[in-house]
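User: Hi! I have a protein structure encoded as tokens and I'd like to know what sequence might fold into it. I'm fairly new to this, so please keep things simple.
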């Protein structure tokens, strides 16, 4: 009778051990060196032009390159380590990430959005990230192998009610 119980419990124990190992896997989304982030959209009109008012909209902000070129840059504007990728997730809620690949950790190696695949990838290490539905989680490549997610930034209301992107 004991042998029968052991044979029955063996698959259950194996399943529980596998679930425990998988559930302990965490994503490291803090590999990018700290850098100031402050992008303000003081009016609804500026948000409509330069922000991401709809689902799967995206914009890149790189202060040193003045990208986007017509954005009203100020002395207080800062765009993180490698720049900021501002996105509207699948529900239209704004989310933001540092453009630097967390595998490469260089400000000049930036992720690129693939609008047809609805994700982003690193042109150097070829890691792929889910930017519209899973908040910067790695999907494949070295980032997925090591559990490196994109650095996230906070998007919300500023002191005067404007949308702001700031470091978390």
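Assistant: Happy to help. Inverse folding works backwards from shape to sequence: for each of the 168 positions I chose a residue that suits the local structure. Here it is:
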């Amino acid at each position: 009778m004991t042998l029968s119980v052991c044979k029955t419990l063996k698959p259950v124990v194996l399943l529980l051990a596998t679930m425990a190992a998988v559930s302990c896997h965490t994503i490291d989304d803090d590999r990018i060196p700290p850098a100031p982030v402050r992008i303000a959209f003081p009016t609804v009109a500026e948000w409509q032009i330069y922000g991401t008012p709809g689902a799967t909209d995206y914009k890149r902000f790189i202060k040193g390159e003045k990208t986007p070129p017509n954005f009203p840059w100020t002395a207080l504007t800062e765009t993180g380590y490698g720049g900021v990728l501002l996105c509207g997730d699948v529900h239209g809620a704004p989310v933001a990430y540092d453009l630097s690949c967390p595998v490469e950790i260089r400000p000049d190696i930036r992720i690129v959005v693939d609008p047809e695949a609805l994700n982003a990838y690193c042109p150097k290490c070829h890691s792929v990230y889910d930017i519209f539905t899973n908040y910067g989680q790695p999907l494949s490549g070295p980032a997925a192998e090591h559990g490196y997610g994109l650095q996230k930034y906070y998007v919300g209301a500023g002191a005067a009610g404007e949308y702001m992107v700031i470091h978390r």
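A useful reference point when you look it over: The two ends are 58 Å apart (CA to CA). Feel free to ask if any position seems puzzling.
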